Amino acid sequence: MKQEIYSPGKEYNSWQYTTFKLLRMENEAIISIKGVSKQFSMGKGKFTALSEINMQVKKGEFTGIVGPSGSGKTTLLNIIGSLDTPTEGTVKVLGNDISNLSAKKSASLRKTKLGFIFQTYNLLPVHTVFENVEFPLLLLKLSTEKRRKMVEEALSWLGIEDKAKSRPAQLSGGECQRVAIARAMVKKPEIVLADEPTANLDAANSHNILKAMVQLNQQLKTTFVFATHDDKVIKYLRRQVELFDGKIARDNMITQKEA
Amino acid sequence: MLAFKLAYRNLIGAGLRTWLNVFILSIAFVIIIWHKGLLDGWDKQARRDMISWEYGGGQYWQSKYDPYDPFSISESHGAVPEKLQQQVQKGNLLPILVAQGTIYPEGRVQSIRIKGIKANQNILQLPTDHFNKESENIQALIGQNMAQSNSLDSGEFVILRWRDVNGTFDAREIQIAGIFKTNAPSVDIGQVWVPLEKLQSMLKTPGEATILVKKNTEVPTSQVSGWEFKDLEVLLADLDAIIKSKNVGGSIFWFILLLLAMLAIFDTQVLSIFRRQKEIGTYIAMGMTKRQVVGLFTVEGAFHSVLAILVGAVYGIPLFIWQANTGISFPMEGQDYGLAISEIMYPAYSLTLVVGTILVVIIATLIVSYLPARKISKMKPTEALRGKLQ
After folding, report:
1. Quick check: B333 pLDDT over 60?
2. Which residue, A85, A127, B124, B236, could crosslink A131 as a Cys pair with Cβ 3.0–4.6 Å?
3. Per-window interface: B 7-66 vs A, CB < 8 A
4. Helices B277-285 and A103-113 sit at what angle, rounded to 10 degrees?
């Protein structure tokens, strides 16, 4: 079916209007980075981790910030995730200017709109799988019943329902990363930031994990931003922003045909 | 509420590590309460014994009487004033006459204090009904420690020498009419109790006394010329001073115990800051504010003491009840201390002691939990996520 183009002034019913609004939102950048630099103090000198970064990420993208170690991928991902602030430039995430965000608002943004996946899973060791996945929902103060349903749904997306009562120490690396993804996805965030999510996994596990993420990206329209130098991940990306020495060296949008 | 839920999960999830800390802390709790209870019990028992055996509800002292000056004893007696005589007759005051004397048990010379007391009194716990009124001998009561140290037994005779009011020496054999057991060494060691009328006639001081013991504190006190009233606060001052010094020692012990318990919490918390850095970073990444994280760690620390109270209650309450009923055998002799120490000590656990200790420990735990947790607030989330030691 051919998609109708929105014409200002023309009358539409509420369904059509909502569709146009959603389409417009899809085309709008939900992450906007302008002239971002980041410097760290190192003894008496300063180390430049990022320099003059400009990029935008639209809703539903499956984007990777790629590059060798020390190129600034994690730093950029931390800034997007409001865990760090840029030395220069502006970063807007879902309309929030990260540089000027108070600690409370920054925490609120992470709590409601962002999901994190870490290289070392960062699961809470004394909690069960269920409790780990439930954690972001506890912060959102949802009811017990709602939390239970959402956790069960997230565990089923990742195929780890049978591990609900296990503790992280009883799981394999692949299972741990699935739990980490379930935890990041359970609240259905707008953006998931994944830092080297497959670095500790073998090829088979990496592919399974990535397939799961692609599926979630397509089903829930969640935006995924990866920081990676793993070829296994790069193969799945629809956009690669290549960093080298803190600068964007290349920004590749991979077409359906190439993929 | 979230902090409580998460702290509970973290503590229960940590399993053995938590329970070890909790158990150590509970031991500190129980020992602190037990030790303080023992001191309080001793304090109460000592006061009770001194009152029932010697001080009654307070004492009138003849103005020259100084129990620490043996040279003035012979002059420190006087006729009971009319005003007080009425109370004596009503049974509200007990006259005691005090004199210096010497006994010669097994050929040894033993300086003693002779105290004359009415045979039919019921103000002090002394068993004066042992005085045999029909005997022609001078009947005497002595304490168990006095009997042991002088190898005297009930029914035996010993020579007693004294000086009367005119300074004339006299001596006679006295018969041990009874040996009493007391926790108050001041009525036992170096004391020989004889019937008041007999001592008055021996000293040639009829109707005179040195001390008048009040039946209880409710008996009204009068100002009488030549006599000074000493209330229980004055009479128990020495005991209070000893108890106070014991309490200082006890407080040091209490402080050390509390410090050890707090050290366990502090150590756990400090270790947490270093070992759980990634976890802290994860909390922040998932949307917790630094304040919430500090709150979580503080509540976790405080939960240790709450769990310790519960665990301590499980074995502490039966232990305290058992000890309060059966007491604790005290191997030391009372005379070593010079104050009333029972052979069996009964700890006293007051609500103030238990609640006070619980509050002090909880507050101290909150402080030692908060201090390391405060360091978290200075930690960069990105550094914490990497688990980088700072």
Report:
1. no
2. A127
3. 9-10, 12-15
4. 80
Q: Does B3 touch chain A (CB under 8 A)?
A: no
What count of other Cβ atoms lies within 10 Å of the Cβ of residue B243? Answer: 20
SS3 labels along A189-210: CCEEEEECCCCCCCHHHHHHHH
CA distance B125 to B142: 13
CA dihedral for B94, B95, B99, B102, sign (positive or negative): negative
The conformational region for residue B93 under phi > 0 = left, psi -120 to 50 = alpha, else beta, is beta
Q: Is the Cβ pair A111, B287 closer than 8 Å?
A: yes
Q: How far is CA B69 from CA A37, B101, B115, B163, B208, in A?
A: 91, 14, 15, 16, 20
Min Cα separation B258/chain A (Å): 29
Q: What CA–CA distance (Å, rounded) separates A254 from A29?
A: 18
Q: Where are the beta strands (DSSP E) in B231-345?
A: 328-329, 344-345
Could B284 and A83 be called an inter-chain contact, meaning their C-beta atoms sit closer than 8 Å?
Answer: yes
Give residue A161's pLDDT.
92
H or E segment at B232?
Answer: helix B232-235
> Measured between alpha carbons, how far is residue B239 from residues B53, B285, B347 in Å?
14, 63, 18
Interchain CB distance below 8 Å, B282 and A124? yes
- Asked if pLDDT for residue B200 goes beyond 90, the answer is yes
List pLDDT tens digits, range B30-80.
888 888 888 888 888 888 889 999 999 999 999 999 988 888 888 899 999
Q: How many residues are present in chain B?
A: 390
Kindly report the average pLDDT of chain A as a whole number: 87
Q: Verify whether the Cβ–Cβ distance A104 to B382 is below 8 Å.
A: no
User: What pTM did the predictor assign?
Assistant: 0.69
Q: How far is CA A251 from CA A49, A70, A97, B27, B294, in A?
A: 18, 18, 23, 64, 41
Please report where in the chains the tokens 């507050």 appear, as a residue. Answer: B363
Question: Rounded distance, CA A73 to CA B106, Å?
Answer: 101
ipTM value of the model?
A: 0.84
CB pairs under 8 A between A and B: 73
- Residues on chain B touching A103 (C-beta within 8 angstroms): 289-290
> Which residues does chain B have within 8 Å of residue A141's beta carbon, measured at their own beta carbons?
2
Q: Chain A residues with CB inside 8 Å of B385's CB?
A: 83, 118, 122
Residues 221-240, chain B: which have Cβ within 8 Å of A?
none
Interface test with chain B among A135, A140, A170, by most B beta carbons within 10 Å:
A135
Instruction: Say yes or no for a CB contact (<8 Å) between B284 and A120.
Output: no
